[in-house]
Write a structure and sequence with these properties.
The chain is mainly beta. Helices cover about 10% and strands about 40% of the residues. This is Double C2-like domain-containing protein gamma isoform X5.
Length: about 350
């Protein structure tokens, strides 16, 4: 595809201090309206026969979000004659297919559907742009079949997107090929036996997800405010391909004060929004000697909850985790937000 290109170098994460009037609200509230002229890409006899898809991509680097606006499709070729009901499904690759799966509404009764709908991936970073690919597939939403019929797909490497600049595309749809999953995945958590070609390689080393945390040392209250804002791309833990996630917080070592909290449970989602805030009392010097253990769990009624992923913020951490912790404790009354990748093992307690 014409989007392929060298990835940008790794840049230091930017800690944002949001407007205090909009405490603990998602960074993006509305879809971008930019619609630049589309760029025609790809052309062959086989793919052209399936139609084309027009869409716009915008990497909002300031708010760590990727916006994909599906405009319209032209020349679709459904299996049967007559009108067709269609929608667009998006996936970020590599990654858990359910966790990164978004879709538009269904437009009914036309072979030239117009959606004008924006799908947003939160927690999308410069590192993601350098290594991930966006797959868009147009499906026929038949009321007579249990499974939707794919009419064609396309893939766009995201490494050539310019941050904060919308780019339009008008790309020919290609055939979607299926291949059987390896035996070890055949019956895992009720997943389908078939998936698109190349998925086995894409899901190896699959992420557990990521979490958006805010930290603020409050001089007025004399302690640390921890905001659990949202999670993105969580690993599915239930047979239905989803999870019922909630977040646990633990400030270690405990000093006899309130040290453990947990959020409410969000049902059947891999991209939950929490927007909940918790308070730990203590002087700045005292907190600097502690560690904040954050873990995401899948709630199970009557059985033990399943661990999804975790992260530890402390002066003993490294990279972005250490940077977030130090920046928070070095400033007062300024809320700092940062996305963190989840580890596949629970955070360990130090000495």
């Amino acid at each position: 595809m014409a989007c392929a290109g060298p990835a940008g170098g790794r840049q230091r994460p930017v800690l944002h201090a949001p407007d205090p009037q909009a405490m603990l609200t998602p960074a993006i509230h509305s879809a971008p309206q930019l619609q630049p002229e589309p760029e025609p890409e790809g052309d062959s006899d086989d793919s052209t026969a399936l139609g084309t898809l027009e869409f716009t991509l915008l990497f909002d680097a300031d708010n760590s979000a990727l916006h994909c606006t599906a405009h319209r499709a032209k020349g679709l070729k459904p299996p049967a004659s007559g009108s067709v009901d269609t929608y667009v499904k998006a996936n970020l690759l590599p990654g858990a297919s359910k966790a990164s799966q978004l879709r538009t509404r269904t437009v009914r009764g036309t072979r030239g559907p117009v959606w004008e709908e924006t799908l947003t991936y939160h927690g999308f970073t410069r590192q993601d742009a350098g290594r991930k690919t966006l797959r868009l597939c147009v499906y026929e939403d038949s009321r007579l079949r249990r499974r939707a019929t794919p009419l064609g797909e396309l893939r766009v490497p995201l490494r050539k997107l310019v941050p904060n600049r919308a780019r339009g595309f008008d790309i020919c749809l290609e055939k979607r090929r299926l291949t059987k999953r390896p035996k070890r995945l055949d019956t895992a958590r009720g997943m389908s036996l078939y998936e698109e070609e190349g998925m086995e390689a894409e899901t190896s080393g699959e992420e557990r997800g990521r979490i958006l945390l805010s930290l603020c040392y409050s001089s007025q209250r004399g302690g640390l405010l921890v905001g659990v804002l949202r999670c993105a791309h969580l690993a599915p833990m239930d047979a239905n391909g989803y999870s019922d996630p909630f977040v646990r917080l633990f400030l270690h070592p405990s000093s006899g004060k309130k040290s453990k909290y947990k959020t409410s449970v969000r049902r059947k989602t891999l991209n939950p929004e929490f927007n909940e805030e918790f308070f730990y009392a203590g002087h700045r010097e005292e907190l600097a000697q502690k560690a904040l253990l954050v873990s995401v769990w899948d709630y199970d009624l009557g059985t033990a909850d399943d661990f999804i992923g975790g992260v530890q913020l402390s002066s003993r951490a490294s990279g972005e985790r250490l940077h977030h912790w130090r920046e928070c404790l070095s400033r007062s009354d300024r809320r700092l937000e940062l996305w963190h990748l989840l580890d596949s093992v629970p955070p360990q307690l130090g000495d």
